[in-house]
Amino acid sequence: MTNADATVALDERERAIINSFQGGFPVVERPFEPAARALAERGIDVTADELLDTIRRLDEEGTLSRFGALIDAEAIGGTATLVAMHAPEERFDKIAEQVNAHREVAHNYEREHPHLNMWFVVSVADDEDVEKVLATIEDETGQETYNLPKQHEFRVEAKFLLDGPISDGDFDLSELGPDVEPSGRGSLTPAERDLVIELQGGLPLTETPYADVADAIDQDVEWVVETINRFLAEGKLRRVGVVPNHYALGYTENGMTVWDVPDNLVSEVGPAIAELEFVTHCYERPRHEGVWPYDFFAMTHGRSEEESERRIEQVRERMGDFFDVGDDDWDTLFSTRILKKTGIRMDERAAANTDAASEENEL
C-alpha cells in the first residue's frame, strides 16, 4: 500500500470525525451529545452513540493514538529537552539500548545526518537533572551529547487533516464548558496533580468520560469539568480531542528541517514559519559551535516524498523573505527509525510541582 492509499479505508463520517475533533472537544458531563449535534449541523449525520462507537473503533484499530487531553508538560512543571549525539554504526544498536534504558528518555529517533544520527528527548522534574542524565549517558556510551533546549516556542500544533468533510479542522466546541477564571498559580494542588496523572493515559471512551475520571480520583464530576476547562484556559492543557496515529493516516514522511537563521531575525522568522499550517512544531534552539550551526527547527509531515519536498520548499521560500538562504544554511533530517516512544513521565513532574502547603490544607 502506498502512502497515498493509507487512508482509503476511512469513510466520509470517519474522516469528518478525525478532522473535527483534533481539538475543541466539549468538556461537559455528556460530551458526545453536543459533539454529534454539531456534526449534524455540518451535514454529518451521526448520533451520540454512533460518534462514541466510531471513535472507540478507530482507537482500537490504531487509527488513533488516543482520545483525551494533550498536556503541556512544561506548564505542568519540570523540563524537557532535545538531545543529539553521534552513534557509530558498529555500536548504534548498543548505544540505543543504553540511551533507552534511562526512564528519563521519552522519545528516541534515528535520523539521517552524517554525524548526529541519534535524537532523543529527556524529561525530568528538575532542570539540574538534565545534566546528570546526560553525564551518565556520556559515561556509559563514550559519546558526547549535545543539549538543544527550547529557547522559544513559536508553534506546537500537531494536527493531521484528511481530504473530505471539515478538512479545514475549524471545529471548536470548547466554549460549551463552564466559564472559568485562571487561578494565577504556577504550582498544582494535590487534587490537580491527581487529575493530571489520570488524564495522561487518555479519557475513557464512555458516554460520561469526565465522570469516570472523577470516580477514579474521588472527585465530583463538576470539579473535574471545571478544572479541565481552567487548565485549557491556563495553557496546562493544549486541547482535548482525538489524537491521530499520523502514520496510520499516511503521514509517513517526517522531516525535521533545521535552519541557520541570523540571530537578529529569529523573532520575525519564527511567527512567519509558524503560520504555515503544515508546520507542526517550530522552535528556536541553541547552536553548538563546530558541530551544529542551526538555531531554528521546523517540523513538517507529508503523505509522500513529493508532498514532503513541496512543504519543505515552501518553508525555504518563506525563509527567503527574510534573508538569502544558501545551501549551507539549512538541512532536513528525516527520521529512519523510531528507537523509543513513551509518554513523558508526568507523575514525577506533576508531583515535583505540587504545592506542599495546599497538600497540608487538604489533609
Automatic annotation (TrEMBL):
InterPro entries in the cross-refs: AsnC_trans_reg2, HTH-Siroheme_Decarb, NirdL-like_HTH
Catalytic activity: siroheme + 2 H(+) = 12,18-didecarboxysiroheme + 2 CO2
One Pfam family it belongs to: NirdL-like_HTH
GO MF: lyase activity
Start and end residues of each Siroheme decarboxylase NirL-like HTH domain: 14-63, 192-238
Its EC number(s): 4.1.1.111
Domain of life of the source: Archaea
Keywords in alphabetical order: Lyase
Pathway where it operates: Porphyrin-containing compound metabolism
Annotated ranges, domain Siroheme decarboxylase AsnC-like ligand binding: 78-154, 249-340
Record-linked PANTHER family: SIROHEME DECARBOXYLASE NIRL SUBUNIT, TRANSCRIPTIONAL REGULATOR, ASNC FAMILY
Family (UniProt): Belongs to the Ahb/Nir family.
Protein name from the UniProt record: siroheme decarboxylase
Species of provenance: Halococcus thailandensis JCM 13552
Species lineage: Archaea, Methanobacteriati, Methanobacteriota, Stenosarchaea group, Halobacteria
